[in-house]
Amino acid sequence: EKAVVLADDLTPAETVLLAHQGICAFATEYGGPLSHTAILARSMQIPAVVGMHGIQQYLRDGEIIILDGMQGTLIAGPDERTLDHYRNRQESERQRRLEMARLVDTPAVTRDEVPVTLMANIEIPEDIEAADRVGSSGVGLYRTEYLFMNRSVPPDEEEQYDCYLGVMEALNGKPLTIRTLDMGADKQVDGGSGRISSNPALGLRAIRLCLKDLSLFKPQLRAILRASAHGPVRMMIPMLSNTHELYQVLALVNDTRNALQRKSIAFAPDLQIGGMIEVPAAALTAGDFARHLDFLSIGTNDLIQYTLAMDRVDDEVNYLYDPLHPAVLKLIKMTIDAGNKAGIPVAMCGEMAGDPRFTRLLLGMGLREFSMHHTALQEVKNVVNKSSIALLAPLVQELLENTGSVHIPDRVDSLNKNSLN
Ligand code: PEP
Ligand code: MG
User: Fold this and answer.
1) Does residue 299 have its Cβ closer than 6 Å to ligand 1?
2) Distance CA 276, CA 279 (A)
3) Cα separation, 384 vs 381, whole angstroms
4) Taking the CA atoms of the chain, what radius of gyration do you get in angstroms?
5) pLDDT of 90-114, one tens digit each?
6) What is the DSSP letter of 317?
7) How many angstroms is it from 205 CA to the middle of ligand 2?
8) Which residues have a catalytic role annotated?
């Protein structure tokens, strides 16, 4: 309790356990800010710094430290003046959050009256209440894999069904997007024992694992379908890389529907099924996916990882993480356009959606649905409400047409500074 934990690295499963034990911050020698460990820390509001090589060697047990998760710094043995400075910063951050909290009941609408949907990402049960409290329009990404962690036997259909019903109840009728199991890569059920693939992020992960191990997938499909009888549930498939995987999923959903019907078990016949676009191949062929789906959701964490060939958990290559890389922007734009053409909504649920520096850019690209960790929601709303799509769209269009000759970060900066946008 109240400890700052230093570690070589932490798995997401360990991070959840430590959070439940009441730690107040952590720093790791390895890992990137887009790892699921870092994402969890953000949503549980645990200050954290990852990828601090050598940190354990420099600190002694019991030492006073300042850990600043916003700047990514750690100060050992601070003097009184430094402590004062950080106490003031802590207080002004608290004030800023209080101010933002005033926006809770304000709808997200641009100055030219375009409504924007702001949803929350949830991982663990504690997030649900927070997602509701910040005034989200619902949950755009429920990472169900956390249900499967820190236990030796996966949850069965009944347990999952109860759990989904509990989340729906807490959401008071707001939509819940349940993502099917995205296990693998840095999220291992058993902490990573057993066969280790040499490229886990390219390995048997997410929908690939589910299609290989139907004993894992089928109970989840049944549980989601059964939950859909009780409220607005959507199902979302992670890491699709070809339409064949999608057809397999749709056939399994059909079989599950038939099986439930035969036993007179209720489900929503029109359960919406969406796909995550987070593999470049899927973005490039987003139209083919859109024809068979009810919605798309762009997972920028993986889309950036796979487009730029940079491992999101490897701090050595983290400098390559660049949401503004022209290739990434083009893939995002292609996906939004493909969704529009097919007449289905396109959301974004990667970390980029919760970064207010990118809100105007994304609005200008045509994005109207953002899902993010709950702590970012008011800030993104604040930007949305001060922006005008009519002014942003042509500027962003021009930017996308000239990615080779303009300095994109500068352009995005000026979009953000321009009070008329
Ligand atoms: C993503 O890849 O952007 C995403 C939202 O999924 P996850 O971070 O869980 O891989
Ligand atoms: Mg992903």
Assistant:
1) yes
2) 9
3) 5
4) 21
5) 999 999 989 888 889 999 999 999 9
6) G
7) 10
8) 36, 349
